[in-house]
Fold:
Amino acid sequence: MKIKSILKACACLLFWSSLGLNTTGQSQNAGLKLPPGFSAKTILDSSGKTRHLVVLPGGLIYVKMARPWKGNGIMILKEDNAGKASIAGGFGDYGGTGIYVKNGYLYASSNEAVFRYKLNEKNEVLTPDQPERIITGLKMGRQHETKSIVLDNDNNIYVNIGSPSNSCQLQDRQPGSLGVPGCPLLDSAGGIWQFRVDKADQSYSQGIRYATGLRNVVGLDWNQQNNTLFVTQHGRDQLNDLFPAFYTAQQNAELPAECLYMIKKGDDAGFPFAYYDQLQKKYMQAPEYGGDGKKEAGKKYLEPVVAFPGHMAPNGLLFYTGTQFPEKYRNGAFVAFHGSWNRTPQKQEGYYVVFVPFANGKPSGNWEVFADGFSGQAEVMTPRQAKHRPCGLAQGPDGALYVTDDVKGTIYKIEYKK
Amino acid sequence: MRKVFTLGLVIISLTGFAQSAKKPVAKKPVTHVSAATLSINRGKLVYQKFCMSCHQADGGGVPNLNPPLIGTTGVLGNKNRLVKIVRNGLQEHVEIDGEFYSNNMPPFKMLTDQQVADVLTYIRRSFGNKATPVLKSEVSPYYAKGKK
Structure:
């Protein structure tokens, strides 16, 4: 009898371990593959499209929703000491991506405007229905319409305004269509704009086009070590679909690079006239603007800090300043890749969080996949197969790393224990 | 020794299989294949060349960008509307099952009427779809009138 029950217990254990489940019913590390010593759990499954987030002392988490979810564009979460989050309310009737906290204010963006809310000493929003609208009237197309935001240490806010087209063609995404001469949309999109944090209703005339030639930036962060803006760009799509005479499907899958840039005022990253080829380590002339897959674009554009493989969609950027993670991770960059669609017929890439070690504001080693397995698939052939797609990143007050997923509204917490 | 023998058997059976697999195909009379099947086969090639990049190999599309072609009324319903989309492209915000798709679809004016019929037949009969084929004669009049 005893032996039987022991056998039963063993079988049960085997069953649970074969499912990769732990006693709380979550799969091990919430299904993520992590470096040794790290663990992960989901703190929330919301079903909303969770984009960027901030995690504040006292267990308060603000999450920007792509579309208002249950009527709220910003979800308030309260994380308890056991590390489980519950929804504690929400506010803001606008969808969007960007959210940031600095000096007692919460900043959040719609796809056309940026608002700010005063926080009290507990980091609670005092007047959720009466934000100050600090920026308005930003260009919003039907693609790359989200606005990501970050602040520097001098009361400036940086806003991405994405290009409303793939490559500034006369006919967007039409095979063979050439580029609009000079691409005038760059006057109001395809770059990063700088505004003041404390002025009402600023628009283009009060802002500064801080950097141009950036097709669409979704991840951006301020590097406190060298006091500089860094951004991750989504590179252009469809080189082979649009210009099959110049590019193979294989080249289409690989090119162009998804770039991490260090941005200084006045920088130009080449879009739409040129793109960065990470295999040749050169800027190439875009086929819409006289390129043929071989013509180089010279040295006039901003060199990337890291050039990742094509189409992986870097949606979140975070410089890690905590002390919970091992020394190697301090001041390095985490990048959340939403995952590709434009690599058919090959398998898709991305759907993971990578780490780039940094020293003194410069990469000090190669990038590596840090957290994988969000998709729940061995291979993703088409994005719809991915169960989760990483989007936003935030660092908790204790140094834990938070990752949002905008497919199922899952929020992951990744921790390190010696 | 046994390994070599087994390997030999595998090779023999493989080549045997390959040969036996080839023969019936070669013998199969082409006349038995229906016009719809031929259209689907041709349409698949058109799909792979012009559509698959955005709408994906499984017709599932790309969330937020390119609409799925699986079981949607747009695909299963009005044929004229489908022809129009392929010919003129689609520059609209499309809502399907509460999700929005906003990428621009270019016009595919370079396709012949037969190719349009084939690719539409392919998508209406693939990915689990079971709608009627689109015939060349259903594409041509639409264009002869120069409708837009």
User: Anything to note?
Assistant: The longest strand of chain B covers residues 94-96.
